[in-house]
């Protein structure tokens, strides 16, 4: 069956319907459209197959009927039997006259058996006094692809927000969000051998995450941890996330295989033998480990250890080892080429002073120090709590401790490796190793100090996800009169993966009213468009729907998106377009989108514009690349950081509590090293208040302080070639309770076929917690740039 073309029910009835019955009853909703039927087709109706949802586009068991005669009693008697009247509908124009005086005088909402709607409609349409009989079509909000803040991944582990700074530096929550909420991917279990001091089998944060393991020191005993180090490393990898207990672990799919080779010796050191370590590597490999974590080191390059490492690598195991904490050369087994050598970084992404260096260093990860140690699980079986040097505590029945070193950094790398492998079990150890290195966050320092950079869980996940083609189809439903000009809609083709995928787009079945084009290009109904797309670099496709000259009715067409993954696998997606055409001049121009008033459904607030209390406005004479410091009228607390002062920058940034020399330009996506780590990015772009507009502050209420940029122009040379400079008007609203409002009254749209370079969002706690609404920079386009009459209200807990 064709999926395009006219979908007639009854041309006369459509005109009457659109011009009369629904005019009044749906005008009160502010929006209406007539989508095609998704479940039961009308006679002669051509409908595209439903892509995902099989719900009908009308209210089940209800029809709308317009008649010349009045229904007496509580039901309409018809060939189908008694049809109860649910509601009498008005056809009045509001001036006391009938909307269609020469046709229907009465309209009703009737109850019919579910599933028999179209059969009853056909029967009623044959009756001479019935002027229209239609389904009670559903109404859909017109989605204008409004921008929205990032949605936080829920993490309710009590120590996460305040103690696990290292996970926030690694973008762990964004990695989980990409897997579980955005792509709804599934993870397979990945066995991770932790060759260490054993593990606390009773720890509540590790229940269900542990295998039996083995004790190489006392083979008749279990691998119970009497020292804490192994439990600490295991928790970094696999502590249960979002269970309301203790901490969050990186890999919810990891199963820990504890191999006990270390214990406290007479000198108080955690030590073991090369023979036991080598045997544990071999045994763990044979037992199915895909990742082996070696948070240990030795000065000795021993053939027994080397051969075990080569054995495991040859069997496809990824070995991850600590570079060492002596501040000298990388030690073994990390120094072997088959092993990923891990260096340690501090709270501010700098190499730790104790972290060993050398050509073997492959990647860095948070290792912490005395001032910012790594909090993780600890063994309750440790003989003395003093073995936890920093911050021993018991939470929900589990022990936790702070420790620092390349041991901790190594556990974090193993955790992200398990996460990546769980997404794509078919990868090799070399593949996973490359993903971790290629996705690392660049750091200051040489390769011998920090390798490829700091581990980034989110970037690693994006590089692991299989490429796909995604498109927001919500805008491809339109209502228009038959004499309307063509409607152009931008369809954004996206890919959740950082792996690029080539695509091609074409119109299926060649309906003459549906065409596609590149922005600014010539529309085609028969040609094929091509391109490539990857995460953070979506491609816009212009879809043109042309109602001109069409008869009243519903038209359904499809676009075909096809792509080819690097392994040759094909990806195919169908995008449906629906165009409802009504007769010109029937008064159906009541199409009032719910979003027309600036409603931002995602953020949960309607557009608002704050006005100053009398005598509270202060205007600042900012010029290009300038700033001014101010005192806030109340203490502002975001997460656990309190701010009393702020600095306003000419380029649309409000830095909190800091006296910085300036905010770097051009803008960049959050968080980056050129931007203040405690700031509100109302419209971070190259603006020039010295060329026009004003920057001011005022109090809108006792608990609301507003920073307003009014009609500030973009700096000369900051817009794309061929585009005119734009003006922007927005407000940053600070609420005493810590919420941040962003209001946009004037903002540019497309500039010469592109979005303006801009970043919008909030950061706090040294950049660990942030919420980004949108970013368009040199490399990425994330989110959607705010448009006119949009508002957001970001709560502190929504920064993650």
TrEMBL record:
PROSITE patterns named in the record: SUBTILASE, SUBTILASE_ASP, SUBTILASE_HIS
Keyword entries, A-Z: Hydrolase, Protease, Serine protease, Signal
Signal peptide: 1-38
BP GO annotations: proteolysis
InterPro entries registered for this protein in UniProt: Peptidase_S8/S53_dom, Peptidase_S8/S53_dom_sf, Peptidase_S8_Asp-AS, Peptidase_S8_His-AS, Peptidase_S8_subtilisin-like, Peptidase_S8_subtilisin-rel
Record's keyword annotation contains Nucleotide-binding: no
UniProt protein name: S8 family serine peptidase
């Amino acid at each position: 069956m064709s999926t395009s073309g006219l979908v007639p029910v009854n041309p006369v009835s459509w005109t009457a319907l659109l011009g009369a019955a629904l005019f009044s009853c749906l005008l009160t909703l502010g929006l209406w459209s007539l989508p095609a039927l998704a479940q039961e087709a009308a006679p002669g109706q051509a409908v595209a197959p439903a892509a995902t949802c099989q719900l009908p586009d009308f209210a089940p068991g209800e029809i709308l009927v317009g008649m010349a005669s009045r229904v007496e009693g509580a039901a309409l008697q018809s060939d189908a039997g008694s049809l109860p009247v649910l509601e009498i509908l008005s056809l009045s124009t509001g001036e006391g006259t009938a909307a269609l005086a020469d046709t229907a005088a009465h309209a009703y909402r009737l109850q019919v058996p579910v599933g028999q709607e179209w059969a009853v409609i056909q029967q009623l349409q044959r009756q001479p006094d019935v002027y229209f009989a239609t389904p009670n079509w559903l109404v859909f909000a017109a989605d204008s692809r409004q921008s929205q803040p990032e949605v936080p991944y829920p993490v309710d582990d009590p120590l996460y927000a305040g103690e696990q700074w290292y996970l926030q530096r690694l973008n762990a929550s964004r990695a989980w969000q990409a897997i579980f909420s955005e792509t709804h991917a599934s993870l397979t279990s990945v066995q991770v051998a932790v060759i260490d001091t054993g593990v606390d089998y009773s720890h509540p944060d590790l229940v269900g995450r542990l295998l039996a393991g083995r004790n190489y020191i006392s083979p008749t005993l279990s691998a119970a941890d009497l020292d804490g180090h192994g439990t600490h490393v295991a928790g970094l990898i696999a502590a249960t996330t979002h269970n309301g207990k203790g901490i969050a672990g990186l890999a919810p799919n990891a199963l820990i295989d504890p191999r006990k080779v270390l214990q406290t010796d007479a000198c108080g050191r955690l030590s073991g033998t090369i023979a036991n370590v080598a045997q544990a590597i071999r045994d763990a490999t044979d037992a199915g480990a895909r990742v082996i974590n070696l948070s240990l080191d030795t000065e000795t390059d021993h053939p027994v250890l080397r051969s075990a490492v080569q054995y495991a690598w040859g069997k496809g195991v990824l070995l991850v080892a600590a570079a060492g904490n002596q501040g000298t050369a990388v030690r073994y087994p990390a120094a072997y080429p088959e092993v990923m050598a891990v260096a340690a970084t501090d709270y501010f992404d700098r190499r730790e002073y104790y972290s060993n260096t050398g050509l073997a260093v492959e990647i860095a990860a948070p290792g912490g120090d005395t001032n910012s140690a790594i909090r993780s699980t600890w063994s309750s079986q440790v003989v003395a709590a003093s073995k936890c040097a920093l911050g021993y505590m018991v939470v929900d029945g589990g022990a936790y401790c702070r420790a620092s070193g390349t041991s901790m950094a190594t556990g974090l790398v193993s955790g992200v490796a398990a996460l990546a492998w769980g997404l794509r079990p078919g990868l090799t150890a070399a593949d996973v190793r490359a993903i971790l290195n290629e996705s690392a966050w660049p750091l200051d320092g040489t390769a011998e100090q920090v390798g490829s950079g700091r581990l980034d869980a989110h970037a690693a996940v994006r590089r692991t996800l299989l490429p796909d083609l995604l498109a927001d189809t919500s805008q491809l439903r339109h209502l228009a009169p038959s004499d309307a000009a063509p409607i152009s809609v931008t369809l954004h083709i996206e890919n959740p993966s950082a792996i690029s995928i080539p695509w091609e787009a074409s119109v299926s079945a060649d309906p003459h009213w549906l065409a596609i084009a590149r922005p600014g290009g010539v529309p085609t109904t028969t040609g094929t468009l091509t391109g490539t797309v990857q995460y953070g670099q979506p491609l816009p496709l212009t879809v043109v729907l042309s109602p001109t000259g069409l008869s009243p009715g519903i038209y359904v067409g499809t676009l075909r998106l096809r792509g080819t993954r690097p392994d040759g696998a094909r990806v195919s997606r169908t995008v449906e377009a629906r165009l409802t055409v009504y007769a010109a001049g029937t008064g159906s121009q009541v199409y009032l989108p719910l979003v027309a008033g600036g409603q931002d459904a995602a953020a949960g607030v309607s557009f608002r514009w704050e006005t100053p209390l009398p005598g509270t406005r202060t205007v600042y004479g900012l010029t290009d690349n300038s700033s001014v410091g101010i005192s806030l009228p109340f203490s502002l607390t975001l997460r656990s950081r309190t701010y009393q002062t702020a600095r306003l920058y000419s380029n649309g940034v409000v830095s909190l509590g800091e006296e910085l020399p300036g905010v770097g330009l051009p803008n960049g996506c959050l968080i980056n090293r050129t931007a203040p780590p405690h700031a509100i990015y109302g419209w971070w772009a190259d603006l020039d208040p010295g060329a026009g507009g004003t920057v001011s502050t005022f109090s809108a209420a006792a608990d609301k302080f507003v920073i307003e940029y009014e009609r500030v122009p973009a700096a000369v040379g900051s817009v794309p070639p061929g585009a005119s400079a734009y003006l922007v008007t927005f407000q940053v609203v600070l609420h005493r309770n810590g919420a941040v409002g962003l209001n946009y009254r004037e903002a540019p749209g497309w500039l010469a076929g592109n979005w303006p370079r801009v970043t919008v969002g909030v950061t706090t706690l040294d950049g660990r917690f942030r919420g980004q609404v949108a970013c368009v920079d040199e490399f990425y386009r994330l989110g959607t740039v705010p448009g006119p009459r949009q508002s957001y209200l970001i709560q502190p807990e929504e920064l993650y």
